[in-house]
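Extended Data, record RNA polymerase, sigma-24 subunit, ECF subfamily
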Amino acid sequence: MKQKLIQQFYQDYQEKLIKFAFALMRSQENAEEAVHNVFRRLWASDKLSEIEKPYPYLIQCTKFEAYAILAQEKKQKEVNLQFLKSEAEEKRLVETNENRLIQLRTAIDSLPPKCKKIMRLKVDDGLTHREISDYLKLSKKTVENQVTIAIKKIKKYLSDH
């Protein structure tokens, strides 16, 4: 009985409901999905026998389903837009960091040879003042002074560029 009634509703109203949903949604695929969902829910419902006027009932169900699909699409578009914005921001930050790194390397390259060598060991190799002094056979104080001089020159270079 239930199956036969739903089949009859489907034959009688499916095309009209799709046209109605299309008018709301402007998408044939979404309109068909909305109507399909209405009939799927109708099949799962126990209230089929309580429906006195099937067409107005199905129109109302289709309208609610169409709005639900549209709301879901809008939410998905907002999520996608937020994702694209965060991707663009991340790309911008990476480019900014790359530019800063290039500026830092250029600033280090502009240093006098002794300062430059010490700063390369510090920045590129991550050595401590003690390790640099041992490696270059300089006093720790000399390395500290050269790093201080280098930092001042780098700051000036970066503020000028």
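Summary. The radius of gyration is 35 Å.
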